[in-house]
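Troubleshooting: if your tokenizer reports a length mismatch, compare your output against this known-good record of 379 residues.
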Amino acid sequence: MLKNGNLIKIIDIEDFNSDDLETLLHKILHYAKKTTNCDAGSIYLKKGNNLHFSIFQNDSFPYEKIFEMQKPIKSMKFPITEDSNTIAVESYLQSKIIMIDDIYEDKNYDFKSTKDFDKKFNYKTKSILTAPLIDTLNNETIGIIQLINKKNDNGYIPFSQDDKQFISISSYFIVLSIVNAKNNLEELKQYNLVLEEKIKLRTKELLETQVKLQEQAHRDPLTNLYNRRHFNEVSGSLFSMSRRGNSPLSILMIDIDDFKKINDTYGHHVGDLVIKSLSNIFLNTIRQSDIAIRYGGEEFLLLLTNTNSNNAHVIAEKLRKHVQNTTIKNFNTSDLNFTISLGLAEVKKDDTTIDVAMQNADKALYIAKETGKNKTVSL
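Known-good structure output:
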């Protein structure tokens, strides 16, 4: 399931097959968050008479913090009892989607655990969308999915009816994937037949609108990264959000070393393979909250939100080493390795626009290229 704007595209269910349930759930939650453009989320599965926490994702925290938070959060469970006053349990019991615009103003549910989390980790939960995961083939609710803090360029906003419709549709596929991780493929195929017509009817209008939106998408056609036009439109908003939230924002400017030589030696087709290989590394490495941009022919930008220069340098070096160890195979008569140079700059507190950091990242990249290439330089 993929998303463009507020609309979905349903792909083959086998793309979500996995023998590892936790890996599968992380993949499902990542796509649900990406589709609804929200900050965080979790999945709870029924075990006995409780809803047990299974996985948690939150793009507002760096990787190290997420790792630290996982263990205490995994001990959470909610008894499935009537009048629990807990949104997760009520969504489960009533088999309905519940949307809350602001948990600190809502009087219908008890958000004690959420507020305790906010206080402990210096986070602010606003909107929540909670949906039951219903196995309609066996008439059983197996858990709930919860999405937190929908956002746009201006900050956090309430979840929409489109989000509600998306999670209603996608919950069928989420359950299908979980069933597949636990049961045999034959049962999954039967389940799919039961749902197929219902899904087609409910997604037809969304898919038609998506096609129109895709035509206007700000994507580079070769790499599927965002393009320079998209950067020009969102960079100001990212800068403003960083200022309002007092959160760090770092810029990585990246250039493929000796790219002209690659084109001259092997041809532009191979040059395109190099560009696509690098782009895939970006797409498979960065967080949902980060933005990868093809800025020029062989030049790229990574906008790393909530990331200071020290953490950005760790990410840059991880990318550089990954690229250095990547081999493009089976073209002409030999394999090809390539390297990248990276210039890093963090937006400073006294910067009035993002342009200063851009200029510093560009200078740092120039130094990296002039002093040996295949290195990261920070300014």
